[in-house]
Structure formats: structure tokens, C-alpha cells
Write a structure and sequence with these properties.
By secondary structure, this protein is mainly alpha-helical. 45% of the residues lie in helices and 6% in strands. Strands 1-2-3 form a three-stranded antiparallel beta sheet.
């Protein structure tokens, strides 16, 4: 829902941010955009020339109902499956898999759980904590803070 609701006005390439409007918990939030993603989005926008939504749907031969020009949910799911298939991913991939992968990689790269909670738009930390079970975190060797304190003092 969040990806297909991105409007062009929500992209801030200068600040490398995307404003997620009324996402999880019906709250607005900002998420960072990678320079690699920005480069790809600019290329996509140049070729596809979206007007309002970043990912425009195609109302060709649509039977009845109103059409807001957003890419459909089924269309997004289809696109994700096609990209996964083309990349040689054997396991079943869903749109939510991307969100899980994003969160897991951020944790594995050292992001703290509270920042991740805000990025994902979770209201409860318990929801975010589920990603800790999936992430393969390097555990630090247990040590006494006195050892590091005395180490610093003796080096002076």
C-alpha cells in the first residue's frame, strides 16, 4: 500500500528522503532514499513520465468503478514476483518480504531498534522486536565496564 501510494511530491531527492503519507498507523513519516535508488527512480521517471503517483496504473479497458491512477495492489504483487523470478530467487516472494528484508538488513547493519521502529511506522516496539529473531546479529563478547574504564585510564 505504501509503495503504490507514493506521489511525485513525496520524493525529496535533494535530502535523499521519501515522505510516506498516512502509512502504518495512519501517520506520516520519512524514510531515507539511497543514492542508487534515486538514480534508478530518475531513470524510471524519465522513461515512464508518471504524472501524480510514482507508479501509475493503466486504466485500459477497465470495466466500471473509479480509477485513481495508482498501480493496483495485484499489479505490485505481480511485479515483485516477476523481478524475484528474473533474479533467480527460488522461494516464494511477496510484497511484504521486501519490508521484512529492509528491516532485517538495517538491524544487521547496526541500526538500533528504536530508530527502526520509527522507520517502519510501528506503534509498539513489540512489533519491531520480531525482526530481532530473524536478524543474524553479531553478538559482542561479554565484558566488564571496569576493564574498559581502567584500560582508558592506563593509556593516558
Amino acid at each position: 500500500m505504501e509503495a503504490r501510494s507514493v506521489r511525485l511530491q513525496d520524493l525529496d531527492f535533494d535530502r535523499k528522503q521519501l515522505k510516506v503519507v498516512q502509512g502504518k498507523g495512519k501517520k506520516d513519516r520519512y524514510v531515507p532514499l539511497s543514492v542508487h535508488l534515486i538514480r534508478g527512480l530518475k531513470k524510471y521517471m524519465q522513461g515512464e513520465k508518471p504524472q501524480d503517483y510514482l507508479f501509475n496504473g493503466k486504466p485500459v479497458e477497465r470495466a466500471g468503478g473509479d480509477f485513481d491512477s495508482k498501480y493496483s495492489q495485484r499489479g505490485v504483487q505481480w511485479a515483485v514476483r516477476q523481478v524475484a523470478k528474473a533474479a533467480g530467487v527460488k522461494k516464494e516472494v511477496h510484497t511484504h518480504t521486501l519490508r521484512h528484508s529492509y528491516a532485517t538488513h538495517l538491524l544487521e547493519d547496526g541500526m538500533d531498534i528504536m530508530t527502526l521502529k520509527d522507520l517502519l511506522g510501528h506503534q509498539n516496539i513489540e512489533t519491531t522486536m520480531e525482526y530481532l529473531h530473524i536478524a543474524q546479529l553479531d553478538t559482542q563478547k561479554v565484558f566488564s565496564p571496569l576493564d574498559t574504564l581502567f584500560e582508558k585510564c592506563s593509556s593516558k
